[in-house]
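Late entry, written up from scratch paper. The run itself happened at the end of the previous shift, but nothing got recorded in the book at the time, so transcribing now.
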Amino acid sequence: MPEIIGELPKPRVLIVNPEGNNEAATAIEKLVPTVRYVTHGEMPNIRQLDWDAAVVFGDALGLEEHLYVIQFGGDWGGAIPTIQPQGGLIYQLKAVPRSRSIQFFVPDALPAAVRPLISSLVSLARSTSPNLVMHAGMQGVSNELSPNVAQPFLEDADHLVLAGCYLHPKTNARWWWLPADIEHPARWAAAALADWHNADPDKFPGGPSWQEREEWATPAELKLQARVKSLQEEFDKFAKDMEQKKLEVAIQQEEEFVRANNSDRRLITAQGDDLVDEVQAALEELGFIVTNVDREIAGEGDRREDLRVNDPDNLDWVAIVEVRGYRRGAQLNDLLRIGRFVARYAEETGKIPVASWYVVNHNLSQDPAVRPSPLVSNPSEVKTFADGGGLIIDSRFLFRIRMQVRSGGVESQQARARFISSTGMLDV
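Output as recorded:
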């Protein structure tokens, strides 16, 4: 083999356009044995085949396809022309402000050196909108395609790539693109070098330099290395424990979600017997004494009110309760029906009930937050109903006050007093 004169130790890295990133560039310089600082304007005067990689701050222009690249920010376009197999079209890579997502996905298969750095990438994505995403497109053509991103580091909810590794189709050189404001660019550069060593160990020799070997370390360095190892082990155990606890809580959360759908939230989702049962359960949770009339008093085919409610502090106080659920709005005829139930109650007991309640779950097809008040277009009829001791209870109100009592924000006696003293309308 002929003697090579002037060969520099690998990897040989160009640091391109580092203005404003001097601290990061200096840190990167310590990671590799051979570096050269250049600007875009100097690139035509460099034989790029003498170099293995480039660390680029901002726009990447005029780089050759054999170079491994990590780029921080800039317009990704102009970096590498890529030949697509279909039709031999030439595309250019670029970053465009496209993602406005608030949800992000971290792929399972990440380079080992990248995973510890992902949290900084996620934090930046959450604080920025819109986020740049990696795209490929033909010059002068508005259509844009996803490039051949061999390894996304972070994706949004639409699977747009916010950072990742592009694999050149001809040379298999890796091109990492990261947002300009990412924290610790030197650490990302170190992660790239570790990943590139696995891809091309000839260009990117692995292993520590002699200055990092233990035989040449000071006692203080050895002590700190041991401390770092201990802390990493401690952190790994903590992370494992937290992941297990997070999983347990997530399971509990899912179980509670299912339970609430099958019970508490029936107040704002159900109709028929399911709604009647849940209204009864809610009133009993507030401390009322509740009788299901259909099950405990009325005979077969004898249509009565759904519930009777007594105040535990005053058993002479009684309200008859009709419970209804509708896909659309509450029905005015229900107030007339309650009047007939009052007459039946007086015939049965010889007394007039103190109160008549109409509990209604209405407009079920709408989000509860935007449902109108029940019978909002019938104020005169509502006032007449109220004058006779009538109370219309939006089931959303019953859900909320039930939750307030359960969480301790309202005493159950206070909640009962609100119902007993009210006529007209109780809604959200």
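The longest strand covers residues 314-325.
(Scratch paper discarded after transcription.)
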